[in-house]
Amino acid sequence: MPTKEMVRLDLPHILTPLPGPRATDVIERDSQVLSPSYTRCYPLVAARGEGAMIEDVDGNRFLDFNAGIAVASTGHCHPKVVEAIEEQSKRLIHMSGTDFYYENMVQLAEKLASIAPGAGSHRVYFGNSGTEATMSALRLARGFTGRDLIIKFEGCYHGHVDSLLVKGGSGMATLGIADSAGVPKAFAETTISLPFNSVVAVEQAFADRGGQGAARNAEEYASGRYGRGCVRQAAGKASADREGRDR
C-alpha cells in the first residue's frame, strides 16, 4: 500500500468515553479467565486494523504510532501480507523447523542472510517470540564466551527470561535482584542491572566486571511499558557500550 494511501487525516476518531462499554465488558471478562501476568498498559480492546489505524470493539479509531508492538512494520493488514497468509494457509499451516525442512523457510533465511550487516557468511535462527530469541542469543553468547554475567538496563523489556526479570541492587553495578516471583536468586545474580542512559554506570560496570560479561542487552529506545513513553539512548551511551564490549 503506497504511503500516501495510508495517511489518515480523519484519525483519531473517538465515539465513546474510553474504554467504551463493549471494551469495559471484555476487560472485565478478561480479568476472570486470563492470567494477570499479561501486562497491559492501556485499556485498548483491538478489533480491526488497517495501515496505521487500529479500531476497538466500540468503533473508536486510533493512530498506531507503535506499529503494533514494533512488529507491524508494513502497517496492519497490508494487502500483500494478507494475500501471502491466505495463499500459504491453503497449502500448509503447521510447520516445525526443528523437525522438518521447508523451502520457504530457506528462502527467507537466504534473503535475511544476504542483507545482514557484517562481513562473512551468516546463519539465521527463527524464534517463536522475542523472549525465545533473547533467551537463545544469551545462551549463544554465554556458550561462545564461557562467561555467565549479562548486562541489562532498568526499564527495558527483553521478554520473560528468568535472568532478565530483575531490577538493580543498591549500587550502580550490583548484581540483579529478582523483580518477579518465581525467579531463582541464582538466576537473578547472573545479571547486572544498570540505570538506563547512565554512561557512568556502563563504564563502571565494564571496569569492575568486564572480564566476566558474556552479553549486553539494550533497547535503542526504552519502551513505554512503564508508563514513560519511548526514551532514546543518551549521547555517548552506545559508544560506551561498544568500547566496553570490545575491551
Strand order of the largest sheet: 1-2-3
Largest sheet: 3 strands, antiparallel
Record field, number of beta strands:
10
Give the helix/strand class. alpha/beta
Topology:
Blueprint: H1 3-6, H2 21-33, E1 46-50, E2 53-56, E3 61-63, H3 67-70, H4 79-91, H5 103-115, H6 130-145, E4 149-153, E5 166-167, E6 177-178, H7 185-188, E7 191-194, H8 199-209, E8 213-216, E9 221-222, E10 231-232, H9 237-246
Parallel strand pairs: 4-7, 4-8
Antiparallel strand pairs: 1-2, 2-3, 5-6, 9-10
Helix pairs in contact: 8-9
Structure in words:
With 247 residues, the chain is an alpha/beta fold. It has 2 domains: 3-80, Aspartate Aminotransferase, domain 1, CATH 3.90.1150; 146-246, 3-Layer(aba) Sandwich (Aspartate Aminotransferase, domain 2), CATH 3.40.640. The protein has 9 helices and 10 strands. It has helices at residues 3-6, 21-33, 67-70, 79-91, 103-115, 130-145, 185-188, 199-209, 237-246; strands at residues 46-50, 53-56, 61-63, 149-153, 166-167, 177-178, 191-194, 213-216, 221-222, 231-232. The longest helix is centred in the middle third of the chain and has 16 residues, at 130-145. The protein is globular. It starts with a helix and ends with a helix.
What's the short story on this structure?
The protein is an alpha/beta fold and 247 residues long. The chain is 36% helix and 13% strand.
